[in-house]
Amino acid sequence: MKVKNEVRKRSTLLIGEGIFLGLRLGGFIDGILLHQILQWHHMISNIQPPTTISNIDLNMVWDALFHALDWTFTVIGVILLWEAGKHHDGAWSLQTFIGSILMGSGLFNLVEGLIDHQIIGIHHVKPGTNELAWDLGFLALSTLLIITGWIIIQKIRIQESGVRS
Q: For a disulfide at 42, which of 38, 59, 110, 125, Cβ 3.0-4.6 Å?
């Protein structure tokens, strides 16, 4: 019983670190894909529409601050994962790690989508025609990532406990 508890404890640490990194990777995907590549929105594009050079500059600064925060927390997540790996005496589960990253990424986008898009409205996924549909699709995709990650983790935990589904 003590061995199973230790395996579950190590698995829980890996899940926590994976979720932490997933939160940040979700932020990077949002910032790089939606802000920079597709240029659908910026951090404060509903507050300061990017219709003038000064507003574009201001939006770029806020996007950069967003990326700097993501980068900082990603570095912290990698350090935490490295430290945990030095003290880990069992095999790590890639599936658990991937599942937790999916959960973290979905969680970031769900919270960010609810707060930034719906509650305070500083920007929307794709402003203009069908704005609400894009926002709801973003929330649905985020929820799907969380559920998929959770299912992956649960399948591995069942396997680790010796129970077959």
A: 59
Q: Both tokens of residue 151?
A: 């299912």
The interaxial angle of helices 53-86 and 2-29, nearest 10 deg, is 160
Q: What per-residue string of b and e applies to 2-31 under the rule 16 or more CB within 10 Å gives b? A: eeeeebeebbeebbbbbbbbbbbbbbbebb
Query: 138-160 pLDDT, tens per residue?
Result: 999 999 999 999 999 999 888 87
Smallest CA-to-CA distance from 123 within 47, 51, 59, 70 is with 47
The number of folded domains in the chain is: 1
For residue 67, the Cα-to-chain-centroid distance in whole angstroms is 13
For residues 97 and 18, is the Cβ–Cβ distance under 8 A?
yes
| Predicted TM-score of the model (pTM) | 0.84
Model pLDDT for residues 91-107, shown as the tens digit of each residue:
578 898 899 999 999 99
Domain that holds residue 91: 2-160
- The reply to whether 165 falls in a domain is no
Q: What are the strands, taking DSSP E only, across 17-160? A: none
Q: Please count the other Cβ atoms lying within 10 Å of the Cβ belonging to residue 131.
A: 13
Does residue 56 lie in a domain region?
yes
Give the single-character DSSP code of 129.
T
